[in-house]
Amino acid sequence: MAFWGNVACSLLFVSCVVLLSCDARYDPNWGSLDKRPLPQWYDEAKLGIFIHWGVFSVPSFSSEWFWWDWQGKPLPGVVAFMEKNYRPGFTYADFAEDFTTEFFNPDRWADLFAAAGAKYVVLTSKHHEGFTNWPSKVSFNWNSMDNGPKRDLVGMLADSVKNRTDLHFGLYHSLFEWFHPLYLQDKSRNFTTRDFVKMKTMPELMEIVNAYHPEVIWSDGDWEAPAEYWQSQEFLAWLYNDSPVNNTVVTNDRWGNNISCHHGGFYTCGDRFNPGTLQPHKWENAMTIDKYSWGYRRNAQLSDYLTIEELLATFVSTVSCNGNMLMNVGPTKYGTIPPVFEERLRQLGQWMSVNGEAIYSSKPWTHQNDTVTEGVWYTMKPGPVVYATVLTWPGSNLTLGAPTSTSATVISLLGFPGNLNWKPASPSGVIINIPPIPINKMPCKWAWVFKMEGLSN
User: Fold this and answer.
1) CA geometry: angle at 83 spanning 78 and 85, to 5°?
2) Alpha carbon distances (Å) from 276 to 195, 284, 302, 377
3) Which of 32, 176, 267, 298 could be cross-linked to 221 through a Cys-Cys bond (beta carbons 3.0 to 4.6 Å apart)?
């Protein structure tokens, strides 16, 4: 199969207000691939939902790396857990029959993600354990149709997500597998052979793209081998040129060792990457509500989960610095999303229903943080319109040092009627007078957004 072809694209880049039209052909090398413009929908979206779900959801102990922590590089706590709770001779594959997913309702999931204000969803199609959540033709019986659920989990969620307006569907895929014999054989040969890539990785990637048309390909498991071993450039050239999603698909940067944060579509640079400063290249903060795991943990305590205040602080700082936030939830083996995750998602959705204007389609401003008051993050839209998200309620007055006011400056609080009184601060900035607001009239419970129009900067 050819890996490259033609792409016709027309993308409006709001940041430079230039319409880029191209009839490009991308060759399988980073010099060419890195020239592909990032599809506009992704930068506008700002918020995605990550879903780590697989056989590791059955033991639901330690993390999604359970198999490796048990039999790869054993952790004493994981080994003790197995010795205490499972019979001798129990194998990791034995967990698969209990990956039942009997309460999985993809429509309910999709409705919840939309209610959270997310614009895209990225499901784990295969983690490092090798179990595929679709009936892969190259997985033998280690997949969700032949084992456990006995159904196509990827296809079911893909259909539900795509039936929701403004929700894009994406897939996470691990390039490698901890214990696959072909991978271990290639590794023992210092990756001078590519049997695993030719017989497993590439067929899987082609399969999920052609079958499910994901608009995000979130690659992982790349760090042990170079991109040339993975044939990453060849795959991306095909994806950008000839695939059924060539005009709309976005990719991350995990395509081989030393590639992350240097090549690819958007950069992730590392798990929970949140630099706190403006980044010149579009990036994504892939993070978890559970502070310690991507998969569901039965023994997690309430303090292990981020509060809504912590989530919003992470979110607004990410967007201010030119990033998207991909927020992870870990469903149970039964196919349910635990209530603590649902609560956080719905809380975030409540906040976005009031303040989404400051988030969706926004761009970084000349300042990310305020120069006087801590806990303030800025975004902007054409106009210019500048938004200051304040993480702590300021009381009767809010002093901002970054804005330069003019006689035409107008300031308001999103979700609250009318304009606010303000005056210039010395030597620069503005002092915003905030009227007494009854608790039942507050526009939201956390992180308030002040909208400023008519600034000179």
Assistant:
1) 95
2) 41, 12, 26, 10
3) 176
Q: Are 137 and 341 in contact (CB under 8 A)?
A: no
Length of the chain: 457
Residues of the chain within CATH 2.60.40.1180 domain(s) are: 376-453
Q: Give pLDDT tens digits for 256-265.
A: 999 999 999 9
Question: Residue 116's closest CA among 353, 332, 288, 317?
Answer: 353
3-class secondary structure, 387: strand
Report the C-alpha gap between 18 and 330 in whole angstroms: 40
Residue 450 confidence (pLDDT) above 50: yes
Tell me the DSSP string of 115-141: HTT-SEEEEEEE-TT--BSS--TTSTT
The CATH fold assigned to 376-453 is Immunoglobulin-like (2.60.40)
Give the Cα separation of 423 and 331 in Å (integer): 50
Q: Are 186 and 152 in contact (CB under 8 A)?
A: no
Residue with tokens 């009239």: 441
In tens, the pLDDT along 179-222 reads 999 999 999 999 999 999 999 999 999 999 999 999 999 999 99
Radius of gyration of the chain (CA): 24
Longest Cα separation, the chain: 78
Residue with tokens 């409705």: 111
Least confident range from 15-19, 102-106, 272-276, 308-312: namely 15-19
Every domain range in the chain assigned CATH 3.20.20.80: 9-358
Q: Are the CB atoms for 425 and 431 separated by under 8 Å?
A: yes
Q: Where are the beta strands (DSSP E) in 283-375?
A: 283-288, 323-329
State the average pLDDT over residues 147-176: 97
Distance CA 130, CA 74 (A): 19
pLDDT tens digits for 354-383?
A: 999 999 999 999 999 999 999 999 999 999
Q: pLDDT value at position 62?
A: 97
135 neighbors 153 (Cβ within 8 angstroms) = no
Asked whether the whole model's pTM tops 0.90, one would answer yes
Class of the 9-358 domain?
Answer: alpha beta
Q: Give me the DSSP letters along 28-49.
A: SSHHHHTTSPPPHHHHHH-EEE
Provide φ and ψ at 432, rounded to 5°: -100, 125
